[in-house]
Amino acid sequence: MAPHSFPAFALLLPAVLVLVAFAAISARASVATIMPSPAPAVEGSGFLHACCANTTNASTCYDSLLPHAGSFHGNRVLVARAAANLAFTRLRSFREGLRRLPPGATGGGRIVDRALQLCVSSAEVSLLREGDALAVIQRLETAAGRGRREQAESDLNTANLYVGGIGPCVTSCVDDVESIGDAGRAALASPVGKKVLAWVANVRLHGDIALDLVVQSEPEYVVQSEPE
Ligand SMILES: *[C@@H]1O[C@H](CO)[C@@H](O)[C@H](O)[C@H]1NC(C)=O
Ligand SMILES: *[C@@H]1O[C@H](CO)[C@@H](O)[C@H](O)[C@H]1NC(C)=O
């Protein structure tokens, strides 16, 4: 009997382990179904939530950066950089959208078309700063580790200037069209004009959020800087 009982037990043991594991999994599953989870367990989402809390629009900030939440590692400079990247991307879409409008799309005549072309040009000027803006924000991260305070302050000023220029760039575009007078206002009230205004609001929103995050990333390196 004994030689037969051992193999029987050996066969039974994995089955018991599987059953135990299964019981544990189903216990977890039933707990999960009874208790609705408050938020998706995305890595870094709590930190992102805290970073976004004090921005122009906390929910847009959080939702738009959530796909990158796992890459921030508790570093506000990295959040600011991702937000700046996103804001410049929105500005690029704005420029592309305006470029694709056929002449007379707003029904506002040549003077409105010319104003919209100027918006494309000023978006281009702003976009020329994208590389430098992202580079200085990136450098703020390394400056933090090395404690180079002056370099960090100069980089922060540059980042403020370049990222802070995104919103005003598109807002001044609307102001210029409006300043044409009745024709400008009528153009903005047209279906195409409303689309342009929606693009402007979107770029402005992401530009403002990015600027807030750049400003709020300051303690990240100031605290770590060498005393003077
Ligand atoms: C939010 O911003 C205000 C004003 O800028 C500041 O006084 C406050 O400390 C900030 N709070 C957090 C949690 O960063
Ligand atoms: C934040 O932005 C979204 C999208 O534009 C908007 O629907 C919402 O009302 C805004 N929230 C606040 C508090 O401004």
Tally of contiguous helical segments: 11
Which ligands, by name, code or SMILES, are bound? 2-acetamido-2-deoxy-beta-D-glucopyranose
Tally of strands: 0
Distance between the ends: 84 Å
Approximately what portion of the residues adopt beta-strand conformation? Answer: under 5%
Rough shape? elongated
Major pleated sheet = none
Radius of gyration: 27 Å
Fraction of helical residues: over 70%
Would you identify the regions where 5 or more consecutive residues have pLDDT less than 50? 9-13, 15-34, 223-228
Mean pLDDT: 83
Structural class: mainly alpha
Order of helices and strands: HHHHHHHHHHH
Summarize this entry quickly:
With 228 residues, the protein is mostly helical.
Structural description of this entry:
Helix 4 (about 75-100) runs antiparallel to helix 6. Helix content is about 80%, strand content about 0%. The protein has a domain at about 75-220. It is an all-alpha fold. The site of one 2-acetamido-2-deoxy-beta-D-glucopyranose has 4 residues, from helix 3. InterPro entries: Invertase/methylesterase_inhib, Pectinesterase_inhib_dom. GO terms for molecular function: enzyme inhibitor activity.
